[in-house]
Amino acid sequence: xxxxxxxxxxxFGTFAFSWVGLTMIPNWQIGHLNxxxxxxxxxxxxxxxxxxxxxxxxVYAANGCNYCHSEQVRAEYAGADIERKxxxxxxxxxDYIFERPVFLGKxxxxxxxxxxxxxxxxxxxxxxxxxxGGPAPSPTGxxxxxxxxxxxxxxxxxxxxxxxxxxxxPATSATTSPSSPPSKSPxxxxxxxxVASPSPAAAPAAAASPGAPPQAGxxxxxxxxxxxxxxxxxxxxxxxxxxxSINFDSNMPxxxxxxxxxxxxxxxSSDALQxxxxxxxxxxxxxxxxxDAKCLVAYMMALNQSHPLKGVRSAGAPAAAxxxASPSPAxxGQPAK
Length: 337
What we know:
The protein has a two-stranded antiparallel ribbon. The chain is mainly α. The chain is built from nine helices and two strands, in the order ααααααααββα. α2 packs across α9 (291-301) and α5 crosses α6 (169-176).
């Protein structure tokens, strides 16, 4: 009986210290955060959401999307989220001050959605015929019609061989004569085209195994032909209705119950999904999103943490120059001491 009092005091102290460490101290540190604004008070971030976005968050939680997707960009030392272009900076507590609840996520079966709205195409950009977010230039056209600023100085160097070094002549001739075979000068980079060239490390592997099967794509969606611009509202609807029409290896379930199949009365609805193949409805019918589907897409389009925050370094921010590493030159040409 004499040992019961210390036992209960120890149990109470354990719960008390846990509550203070997990509730009181974090609330004291970040519980008073307010939206960030500039001196004029015009650039305010974040802004509270309402209407369809709020309802879309409830649809997002009701369908268990937070079990496979996260909404937090990890710092560079903790993961490769910034390298994967999921955000320009890490997520901060200020990003979530208006979110109730906060869907940080349990695991990542798919990509992070903290900046899925920032990846949407701009309204003034027109989609390419292949359905991509931007027009893809033709490789032949890019090679035959280089920009004037890049093509004019090089013919001048070829016309005056005395002004150029001998080791620079092969590169100039390769640039001015696109008809010459590039195999004769493998060490010299040819003219840039609209198709991305493989990296030097991947080129030998591709040449060594020409008959190897194609490698599996990333676990997140990829743009395919015949679809709306990637990460647009129409693209999200197609992805929710038929995920494997965009990414064949996707394990995301289909949310077809959020859409309805109805007969076309007068004209095709502007909200009708652009489906092809076996997913396309019969002739005279169309598949349109319900109100919950529109709210869910509105919520995902509103997820945007690309706004810079004070005290949080962005990936593209230039590093501060060290005075010792780059001394200012003195008038006499010597570094200032």
